[in-house]
Write a structure and sequence with these properties.
single chain, 170 residues, alpha+beta, four-stranded antiparallel beta sheet, 6 helices, 25% strand, elongated
């Protein structure tokens, strides 16, 4: 029996050495972005998603640094992404007129055009330097509508925003 334990120990060491490069590769690809996850979680309807869905969104999202004065989305353009605001302030302009509210930290924009597959209803421009989280259309839709709860969240978000008078669906 003692010889069997020695062989087992040697076999486990060999397996560990063989698996080490694969494990290191997984570690290199595993990027944990607590700030990105926090920025997404601060958007009210995204905070209702299951933690694994939210983590998947954060893993597939990218940071976008936007200088003051830059147009992030243009009215009439095709909606290809959702944005969550990590820092900064953005103006919303519809039909050439600035709307009486700005978008700021903890808010997001672009969800309704993704849910409804419609053109952008307004232009969003950075008033100051901003840092945004950009979530591509397919990743956003998979997270929000990938389950019965996701469909409920999507319906609730669309209904709540449509109920707000004067609020553009960017």
């Amino acid at each position: 029996p003692a010889g069997a334990y020695v062989l087992l120990g040697i076999a486990l060491c060999v397996i560990g050495v063989v698996a080490l490069p694969a494990l290191r590769g997984l570690d290199r690809r595993a990027v944990y972005e607590p700030e990105m996850l926090s920025a997404l979680r601060s958007v009210s309807f995204l905070s209702l998603l299951d933690p694994p869905d939210l983590a998947r969104l954060a893993r597939n999202a990218v940071w976008v640094d936007v200088p003051a004065g830059t147009v992030v989305i243009e009215q009439g353009d095709h909606g290809d992404a959702f944005y969550a605001i990590h820092s900064g302030e953005l103006a919303v302009v519809k039909d050439g007129e600035r709307l009486p509210y700005d978008l700021t930290i903890g808010e997001g924009f672009g969800e309704l055009v993704l849910l409804r597959d419609a053109p952008r209803a307004a232009t969003v421009r950075a008033l100051i330097d901003c840092r945004l989280v950009r979530v591509e259309r397919d990743d956003f839709l998979a997270a929000v509508t990938g389950s019965a709860d996701g469909h409920a969240v999507a319906r609730d978000v669309a209904a709540a925003y449509e109920a707000q008078i004067g609020r553009a669906h960017v």
